[in-house]
Amino acid sequence: MAVGRFSQVLLVLFCHVLYSSSSFQPALVLDMAKILLDNYCFPENLVGMQEAIQQAINSGEILKISDRKTLASVLTAGVQGALNDPRLTVSFEPNFVPVMPPALPSLPMEQLIRLVRNSVKLEVLENNVGYLRIDRIIGEETAAKLGPLLRENIWTKVTHASSLIFDLRYSTAGELDGVPFIISYFSDPEPLIHIDTVFDRPSNTTKELWTMSSIMGERYGKRKDLIVLTSKRTMGAAEAIAYTLKHLNRAIIVGERSAGGSVKVQKIRIGDSGFYITVPVARSVNPITGQSWEVSGVSPSVNINAKEAVANAKNLLAVRSAIPNAVQSVSDIIRQYYSFTDRVPALLQHLESTDFFSVISEEDLANKINYELQSVSEDPRLMIKLTQDPPVIIEEDFEPENIPNDPAFLTNLVDTVFKVRILTGNTGYLRFDKFGDVSVMAILGEQIALKIWEPLKDTENLIIDLRYNTGGSSASMGILLSFLQDPSQQFHFFTIYDRIQNTTTEFNTLSGLPGPPYGSKRGVYILTSYYTAGAGEEFAYLMQSLHRGTLIGEITSGTLMHSKSFQVEDTDIVITVPFINIIDNNGECWLGGGVVPDAIVLAEEAVDHTHEIIEFHREVRSLVEGTGELLEVHYAIPEVANKVSRVLLVKWAEGSYRSVVDYESLASQLTTDLQETSGDHRLHVFYCDIEPETLHDMPKIPTAEEVGYIIDALFKIEVMPGNVGYFRFDMMADIEVMRAIGPELIKLVWSKLVNTDTMIIDMRYNTGGYSTAIPLLCTYFFDAEPLRHLYTVFDRSTTTMTEVMTLPQIQGQRYGSTKDIYILTSHMTGSAAEAFTRTMKDLNRATVIGEPTIGGSLSSATYQIGNSILYVSIPNQVVLSAVTGKSWEVVGVTPDVEVDAEDALAAAIKIINLRAEVPAILEATGALVADNYAFENVGADVAEKLAAASGDYNLISSKVELEAKLSADLMTLSGDKCLKTTHNIPALPPMNPSPEMFIELIKVSFHTDLFENNIGYLRFDMFGDFEEVQAIAQIIVEHVWNKVVNTDALIVDLRNNVGGPTTAIAGFCSYFFDADKQVLLDKLYDRPSGTTKELWSLPELTGARYGTKKSLIILTSGATAGAAEEFVYIMKKHGRAMIVGETTNGASHPPETFRVGESEVFLSIPTTHSDTTQGPAWEGAGVAPHIPVPAEAALDTAKGILNKHFAGAKK
């Protein structure tokens, strides 16, 4: 956008400037443009500028501007507006004489010292707060010259301050190369930090600025507080320091937004005129933000008048100095009082590791600690806040009152505290506004039994009114809960853990109640309001979690009881800590926040709503039972239906349905229970005031006029490039409808697709419909004979099994069974569309591409539950695969190739193109194997069998799958694990390491040792190429071979040697034979050339031979392969070595890589084998050891053999 804007603005500007009676303006503008192109630090914004200027010159528009200063102002406005850079200015100054200030390093030492002392102020304020003011940032060269002075007079004195105020308010000059030293002073030595990148346009160079690993003097470090002061005058290098320290989270910036200067600005004369243009020639980019302090300046963390910055910084440091003590105080309170003792270690560790860099006030500190505690504890009761008022301590003193033992008084007290009535419908009503202490409740036991439970014992339901209950003793809740349970069953209600007392109290059913229990069968309804608090809302919560009651009314107050508040020392911060946990019988702890009723209504309307809910609850059991009965009759899987039916009744008996308060909530609860118990998401209960329409009502047969519209609406077709048919339909129509539209469908749709070579059937938007047309649709993709079993349908309602077959006769031409079919699916593909897709997949007639389908049902029916407005949708049929006998329902159809639905069509086309290449790839593979495989007869046989197996590749879906199958087939047909597909790995460029690098590489590649009895040990895990080895033979001899050549016996360890080139085999073998006689080591047959090469020992070697006289043992394992096997084979064949270990891998001589035709498939083909009259020498079979032992025991076995040999020789 900057480029386009610049070109357009300059075009308009210059059209009005360039023409004059004199001719200096065009040259002036062109010269200015040249200066910008060569010097402006944002060259990317200048693209197209010269063309725009030339176009303006040629346009001929006239605006005479004879006044030079006016022209300069116009040019300034134009260039600033075009590039959005206020630093670009044009001026007319014919008498301007550039004055270059002397560089600091060139000044005499006395002047440098005076300059530094005048620009630096240092003092230590109260509380050991350091104050450092620097008005000029000195550069790297000057700093090095004045090193001892700066160290002794500035940095050493600052280092020992507890915190530091770094004042840059008056810093208006300096060198940017001095920035790394100051940033390093406030950082650790490691790791080095990339702090800035500076681009210089005239030199077209980029320089990165990093912190320094070593600096003069002791570092201030990064752990003590640092505040940087800025003002509107802060400019240049000082801005770079402030910006960097801010975004490294190392310093808090206090004061005003800085000036927004530049890294480097030059005033350049435009040609020979008196005009000058001021241009920023360098720019800074911060690596953290990707932006810069230039122009926009550095915004402060605390925005305040610069004159007040020091005082504000002192206050801020005072706040920050209190952070460690405040955090420690909070930690101590949590450690001593917090009721979740298992969470305390994590909370304390988290607080200890929290970064409080951003805290600039007590309010920030309170909010930060609160946020961190909440994120770890997930407990809303644990709160930190700032308050000017002392914490309110809620006393929970439930000491027993001094109650006189006077029956009349006790009776009057019960009548006052408890309100008992019998409402209409034989519904009991009990109200009390506070839970009394347990001891008081014991004293009042007989009166409570007489005045409360006797009147209520015969009611059908009970309303407990807690709308005005403000709390009380939590322990007394157990008494009331016991009255509401069956006394014959021991039941756990809740547990109270008290952190202060460190006690755990369990509350269970109480025995020996003073009055008749109300029991657990009858309905209990709890009324709540915004005033319900403390033990009142705890009781409501427990009744809900115990499934013992139905809550009706308003959300409770959420008043935090069982908590203590403490003021954090020397602050206005208050921490509230819960010290008691109430844990329900499910092991869950109530964390406050208010209890949400099952039915939310206004408190004053709660009683009326309760009567309505009581009436509704009278029919809940029959509706739950009726739902189960409908499942038992109609659900497609009888054993699941019986299980679900039983579970529903158990849940009702346990009280799980007490929370339902209307048909909507009952339908939701039933749906949840049905789906969770059965695992079938298709089961669904809903309510409807009118009888719902049934999906499978008899379909309407379309008229002749409607047929064309239906075909256009349902079917989309296209013949794509490569004669690929595309067939999309979004609904499965009924068989009768299909028959009615059949002739037109054949004419308008099928006739255009039937002669394509491949077809893509798009079911991504097909959500189902009727299943009756599935056999007809499938039939088109199979031959007429024999009829194919598509799937079996089990109908639960009729308990019948129906095998669905292809049809013997259809209208129109069949697509046949040989052409490829691809079906596209999505998460929307459902029911009948899934049945068609799964059938085609199971019968290997189609490749399915896309997303797993929804897992719908072939047929679901809707049944009314009793005479209610509730209905349940039940799948009553199950489709069983003709191949596996299993159902796809519920889980859906998993595609052969799983991709996002929107990518399915592209994926299908890609597979089609791949499969079109497969025949040619197989043919080319066979030819390559026949012409190049080392064993000619085997190669010809593999090629013939591979051609015959081409039909097995019809369902290949990716290049990876093709390569894997081709590899498996080649290995199976040849019996050779080395004949397989591979990847074309480009050869690495040749390395030219130094002799020193070669030596280190050799030391790593070879391992030598010297055992008892002068037994040598040599291990290397790969053979090298002869040309490479020959070049470094002398180095290998000096650093490896000479260590073992003079031993009396040698163990060569090839257990981990995986092969490599065989070109160096002859040379290595030669070391173990004598020089006076050449040995024919092996004959190698090369299949591509049809020639046999003789492998002889070499007459000349680098270094001494080991010879034939000394003992040689070679260690092998199942991993020993390729060139290593060839070496073992030669040495064993010539009787030169004893082989100890395991049979080798049975690989081959190093295979060659061949490209298969023009494809991107590559083959690894062994082309050479050891030529023997008995068949393969070791290829495919491996080399058997003389002494077979496990690989891990081979070395000890070899040493034992040689030690025994030497011991016998000494005797």
From TrEMBL:
CDD domains from the UniProt entry: Peptidase_S41_IRBP
How far does the signal peptide extend, from start to end residue?
Answer: 1-23
The GO biological-process annotations, alphabetized, read as: proteolysis
* Domain (Tail specific protease): residue spans on this chain: 108-305, 406-602, 703-900, 994-1190
Give one GO term, molecular function aspect. serine-type peptidase activity
List the InterPro entries.
ClpP/crotonase-like_dom_sf, Tail-specific_protease
Q: Which UniProt keywords apply?
A: Signal
Pfam families tied to this protein = Peptidase_S41 (PF03572), Peptidase_S41_N (PF11918)
Query: Which SUPFAM superfamilies does the UniProt entry name for this protein?
Result: ClpP/crotonase
Q: What is this protein called?
A: Retinol-binding protein 3-like
Report which gene this protein is encoded by: LOC120029679
